[in-house]
Write a structure and sequence with these properties.
Layout lengths: L1 E10 L5 E9 L4 E5 L28 H15 L7 H12 L9 H19 L3 H6 L5 E2 L1 E8 L12 E6 L5 H21 L19 H14 L8 E6 L12 H14 L2 E5 L7 H11 L4 E4 L7 H10 L4 E4 L1 H4 L2 H13 L3 E5 L9 H8 L4 E3 L6 H17 L4 E2 L6 H4 L1
Parallel strand pairs: 4-13, 5-12, 7-8, 8-9, 9-10, 10-11, 11-12
Antiparallel strand pairs: 1-2, 2-3, 5-6, 6-7
Helix pairs in contact: 1-2, 1-3, 2-3, 5-6, 7-8, 9-11, 12-13
The structure holds 2-phosphoglycolic acid (PGA) and zinc ion.
Organism: Geodia barretti
Pathway: Carbohydrate degradation; glycolysis; pyruvate from D-glyceraldehyde 3-phosphate: step 4/5
Enzyme class: lyase
């Protein structure tokens, strides 16, 4: 049972304060979790509570959510068992009482929820992924490595937010990650040769000043070839357009869909995230009708890990995959429900980091424990990104002969 809850203000990868929580149990185990933070957030995300006191951290302090943990959450959960995550999360939702967790803050609630999950796993002597999976299968996800950063994550780079390399055509996670790393370095060579910057953006990818989004796609293909891998067979491309951040004048939906059709025809693009803005449900269906058989169409800002919105999207055929971010919804249980609903519809699942991250590695365990098949954790650079990939390397080693790599099968439907 929970014997103590301690929250503190620590830093994320952008140098902003964030919430860290320690949940201590009566058997002496302690679970710790740190909460990430987005920049290109969806309008329907659960609320990230910040102090707004301009005299501290430019208003971005998190003393208020920490006080909420001390005053409202801690007294309610002391003595509770962490083994019933559903009961704990339901209680947190109930204490908050708002639809978007705006009273206590989703950063307060998620910190406690994740730390409790970790404490429960430790107390049972299990790795977190195994506690999440129950008796289910354990699959290592295909990494989607964001090697060119643009949009809200890198000023002066491309308009589209993320250009990812997807090393799916390998037998193990370790080999796939190695390919991703070699391609990342080959891309640096290609940029240097052209006199372009190799400085990196928030997610560790390069942020060169390129005249056109398409130049970024061409550069990723060049990098795959330079690293001696086969594009379209071993390595593929995924995009996160983050269309809600684009100007509708420059990028109307019909123009965007035209670009995607062209790219899907001419490049090994297997996945397009947020190809259409989050308030434009009808054009999501238009896009899905046009290219949904040839590419995974992932909703991030559209769904915000919210089962009500995912249910609507499945009914409307608005895409065919969902991006999953714990802090968009605010508890472990609701996140697992969103994954289940998506998988039951036969849709793809991508477990994701945020652009503001920490050394917390929960998403690696979440990806394995849910058999999600795909994970987005940025470039293979910057400690907060590699922490997740390194955790997956350790999990693969730990599983030994039981380890399965999701591999090309994830995209088989779009490749034939
Ligand atoms: P964010 O971006 O964490 O800044 O919201 C990540 C994404 O859009 O997938
Ligand atoms: Zn996104």
């Amino acid at each position: 049972t929970i014997s103590d809850v301690k929250a503190r203000e620590v830093l994320d990868s952008r140098g902003n304060p964030t919430v860290e929580v320690d949940v201590a149990l009566s058997d002496g185990t302690v679970g710790r979790a740190l909460v990430p933070s987005g920049a290109s957030t969806g309008a329907n995300e659960a609320l990230e509570l910040r102090d707004g006191d301009a005299s501290r951290f430019r208003g971005r302090g998190v003393l208020q959510p920490i006080e909420n943990i001390d005053k409202h959450i801690k007294p309610a959960v002391l003595g509770m068992s962490t083994l019933d995550q559903v009961a704990l999360d339901n209680l947190l939702i109930e204490i908050d009482g708002t639809p978007n967790k705006s009273k206590l803050g989703a950063n307060a609630i998620l910190g406690v929820s994740m730390a409790a999950a970790r404490a429960a796993a430790q107390s049972e002597g299990k790795p977190l992924y195994e506690r999440i999976s129950g008796d289910g299968a354990l699959t290592l996800p295909v990494p989607m490595l964001n090697i060119i950063n643009g949009g809200a994550h890198a000023a002066g780079s491309t308009d589209f937010q993320e250009f990812m390399v997807v090393p799916a055509g390998f037998d193990t996670f370790r080999e796939a990650l190695r390919a991703g790393v070699e391609i990342y370095h080959a891309l640096a060579d290609a940029l240097r040769e052209r006199g372009l910057s190799t400085s990196v953006g928030d997610e560790g990818g390069f942020a060169p000043a390129l005249p056109d989004n398409q130049d970024a796609v061409a550069l990723v293909i060049e990098a795959i070839e330079r690293a001696k891998y086969r594009p379209g067979e071993q390595c593929f491309i995924a995009l996160d357009v983050a269309a809600s951040e684009l100007s509708g004048d420059d990028y109307p939906a019909d123009k965007l869909i035209g670009i995607y059709k062209d790219w899907v025809d001419n490049y090994p693009v297997v996945s397009i995230e947020d190809g259409i803005a989050e308030d434009d449900w009808d054009n999501w269906s238009v896009m899905a009708d046009a290219i949904g058989g040839r590419a995974q169409l992932v909703g991030d800002d559209l769904y915000t890990t919210n089962t009500e919105l995912i249910r609507k999207g499945i009914a409307m055929n608005a895409g065919n995959a969902v991006l999953i971010k714990l802090n968009q919804i605010g508890t472990v249980t609701e996140t697992l429900n969103a994954v289940k609903m998506t998988q039951n519809a036969g849709w793809g699942v991508v477990i994701s980091h945020r652009s503001g991250e920490t050394e917390d590695t929960t998403i690696a365990d979440l990806a394995v424990g849910t058999n999600a098949g795909q994970i987005k954790s940025g470039a293979p650079a910057r400690g907060e990104r590699t922490a997740k990939y390194n955790r997956l390397l350790r999990i693969e080693e730990e599983l030994g002969g039981r380890a399965q790599f999701a591999g090309r099968q994830v995209y088989e439907h779009y490749l034939s």
